[in-house]
Amino acid sequence: MIRPFATRIILFFALCLAAAFSTNAQSLTVELHAKEGAEFDITNLYGRVLVRAEKEATASLAASSPTGVTAADLKISGTKVEVAPTDRRKRIDLVVTVAQRCRVRVETREGEIAIVGNFAEVDARTTTGTITTDIPADAVKYELQWTQSRPRYVADFELEKIKEKSAGRFVISGQYGEKVEKKRKDKADESEDVPTDIRLKFLTARGIVLINVPPNEVGSDLRERPLTEAAKAIVRSGDSLLMEAIRRSAPQYYGEYVRSLPPMKRLPSLGNATAPGTGPVAEFKTALVRVVDVRNRAVSDLTAADFVVTESGEERPVTKLERSDAPFNLVLLLDVSGSVENYITFIRKAARAFIETVEKKDRIAIIVFNEDVKVLSGFTTDKEHLSETLDSFEAGGGTAFYDALAYTIADVLRPLKGERTAIVILSDGEDNRSFLAFDSLLGSIQESGAMIYPLYVPTGLIQEEMLGKKDIDPMRKRYMSLTKRSEGEGEKLAAISGGRFFPISRLAQINSAYEDIVQQLRGAYSITFRSGSAENGVSPNLRIRVKRPDLFVTISSVKAAQPPTEQGKTP
């Protein structure tokens, strides 16, 4: 049986390949004539292969290519499948569905091999393609071999140590879990009696092996290496989501570091929220809210008459509305990796411009990152001190952007949970050295409540504008824009945190972006209303909306308030 946790990984693999198959692609579906317990041999040197084992499935194959697939592109003999396109430049992807407990052999070149379900044995061979699995891990016997590189892998459980063999080969072999000796009693009880012991035999020249770990949760640098200070701080934070991602990336060093620490208390991971506490009924409450439009820009011209407050479906009268002037805790996160090594003057100038733009009451902290992080200044309102600290760093090295962002969330902002916090990022959005993957950050970012404002500046743009070039070589223009990955991730960071993404195409846009950020930060309201609920904090029964169309309200906090008459106001 496939364990319940497998669902999201199955969906990830299936959706990735299904999307590739459906986008401008024409497919061909073929039924494979196979007996129970059959052995499948699949060779596709021209694309990807997903093999999926399902209970009582009829063996079938779906082949797809943007230019279409014909029967002549496939050689099928029983359970042996070979992709042999008439045009060798054609890429053909396969999805093969088989019954559980089959034996499967799959071979590709650069194409990914994805193995999902309960198999008896899997033999996967590739040159540079990634091999990914989502299998029951009750009892796994594995032999993983790299013939032309050091191993690059991530597993959901601890593997044996790497052994170096002759001719530059590296092998990881061993067994995880206990041998399962279940036997089927009868057909009616088959669903509860299917064995789950699996043998894996993977051979690759320079590929990546991921065992029960979705590719989108894997960091950019898969070398087993000592933990950085940022990674250690993330482990100490107790954030179980981020800790698990670090453990997968560096299991040996993670284990050694955890054993050196005193017993820690982990922060809870995402799950079902506990019911808000109850207490004496507060007749009046004040909610801190933020209102944005469809472009995620703060709206600052609303009146009390624009808001509707309800508790459990009953409308509550708004007795007071104020623009919130509470100070912010701002983190300025600066990329000082090798990609900006020649532009330190620009980084310092841009950072100082931001410091001067924010209001005097806002507290600012400055953190720089390359392969690791360095805190230049903790939170302070002393702008002169902040400016001075910007002379204390040098640029160079790799880029561990995701680790730096996670460090900021888990270590720097964690003590301020419940306060108004924001992170302003100045970077090109690229990462090549983090232990963490981008997707592993998202849950912790949402839980933190911090708004994120990514300002992504292509390094090529800095160079050209600093040199004052007006006529730019067309071949160089591609270095003056962000990658699609950076743009997509920047937009996602802003969307899930309530911030705003600023893709910079001219350096002059940076100062206007700073001014816009300050305006966004001030776009909050304190709404006092008469309450009938005994629940403390943000109740799931509380709803606040704006009567104007296409405006959206986010509730940051709710607390008891004094009656308006005691505040010098009348209801």
Give the number of domains: 3
Proportion of strand residues: 25-35%
So what's the overall shape?
Answer: globular
- Give the structural class: alpha/beta
Read across the widest sheet, the strand sequence of neighbours is 5-6-2-8-10-16-12-15-14
| Helix content bin | 10-25%
Tell me the radius of gyration.
Answer: 28 Å
Low-confidence stretches: 1-9, 19-24, 180-191, 270-279, 566-571
* Mean pLDDT over the full residue set: 84
- Measured between the Cα atoms of the first and last residue, the distance is 63 Å
| Largest pleated sheet | 9 strands, mixed
Number of strands: 30
How many separate helices?
A: 12
Quick description:
With 571 residues, the chain is of the alpha/beta class. It contains twelve helices and 30 strands.
